[in-house]
Amino acid sequence: YPRRHAPETQLREFNLTEIEAMLRSYTKVLFVRDPFHRLISSFMQSIGSSPSFSSFVQDVLESGQHNTSMAWKPLVSLCQPCFIHYDFVVVFGFFRQELGHLLQRAGLPVDSLLLEFTDSHVRWTYSWLSEQMFNELSLQQKQHLSHFYQQDLAAFPFSSSFLSD
Fold first, then answer.
1. Looking at beta carbons, which pairs linking 126-135 to residues 24 or more positions away fall under 8 Å?
2. Span 9-34, average pLDDT
3. With bands split at pLDDT 50, 70 and 90, how would you rate the model's confidence at 1?
4. pTM value?
5. What is the DSSP letter of 106?
6. DSSP conformation class of 162
7. Angle at CA 10, nearest 5°, toward 6 and 15?
8. Alpha carbon distance 58, 142 (integer Å)
9. Which end of the chain is more exposed for a tag (fewer CB within 10 A), N or C?
10. What is residue 66's DSSP assignment?
């Protein structure tokens, strides 16, 4: 969008007419990730700030949805999928398949760009890691996390998420 366009400009800085014009003119792609995997990733990146995954999760739950970090804030509150019609939703763990389709639809070469992705290793690693981390949590923490991310779990295809149970 030509007016006031800069990489750091946020959508909320425009008026409603400008926002609607921009959203109609762009191809909108949303990349989503299982909320439990996002928590694990955040914990792994901040090792040292919490003694255990369980205490890290407790800190997240106590912070609440309004005061929480963007790293683990529910996606629905960040991306507004109920208000913005995304042209594509790409799920982490299926990048190779979904990006191939996206690149093909955009008329870009597919094969040479997707050689680096190894989704099967990523899915296996997160499956194993999720099980280990999930077993560290109390039943109450599991229930609170499911409630904390209930809108994400309803809005996106995370059928194999530990939080879906």
1. 126/34, 126/37, 126/40, 126/93, 127/160, 129/40, 130/34, 130/36, 130/37, 130/40, 130/162, 131/162, 133/36, 133/39, 133/40, 133/43, 133/53, 134/36, 134/162
2. 86
3. very low
4. 0.77
5. T
6. G
7. 105
8. 10
9. C
10. T
